[in-house]
């Protein structure tokens, strides 16, 4: 009997004779809190409104942090998530983590932002490259990246999409 009973710890499968037990899993997004933001409406159509969310959540942080705002098909805010934390002068967000959060939120649109604790609200080449990667990956999942922002402690912000448009 012991020879016919095996267990694979790596994938969680249990095999007894010719029967196999396969673990059933689920993935869920769990609300961990709320943020208070002064908005006139629960809908976000552009960077001006989104910047208020991001400056209130990221603007005064002393390390670089990436935030994600998820919107439904009517541009109503579904949720906010911090998707990456870095050091005082850089953050390396995972595009997969950004999209995982957007997909679990059932988002149709996303806006991404990160802060520059230095107060220098200038867009860098890595900021542009990351925005392009996020936009391309989101498009594959039928999610539209509205914009990617850089926010600073002063409340100032810069639109990476606008910057990319000026360079073309």
Offer a quick outline of the entry:
This protein is of the alpha+beta class. The chain has 4 helices and 8 strands. The strands form 2 sheets. A 5-stranded mixed beta sheet has the order 5-4-6-7-8, sandwiched between helices. The protein has a 3-stranded antiparallel beta sheet with strand order 1-2-3, with no helix packed on it.
Name the features.
168 residues; alpha+beta; Cytidine Deaminase, domain 2; 5-stranded mixed sheet; 4 helices; 27% helix; disordered N terminus
Characterise this structure.
- The chain starts with a strand and ends with a helix.
- The protein has 168 residues and is an alpha+beta fold.
- The chain has 4 helices and 8 strands, in the order βββαββαβαββα.
- It has a 5-stranded mixed beta sheet, with helices on both faces. A 3-stranded antiparallel beta sheet has the order 1-2-3, with no helix packed on it.
- The chain has one domain: Cytidine Deaminase, domain 2 (3-Layer(aba) Sandwich), CATH 3.40.140.
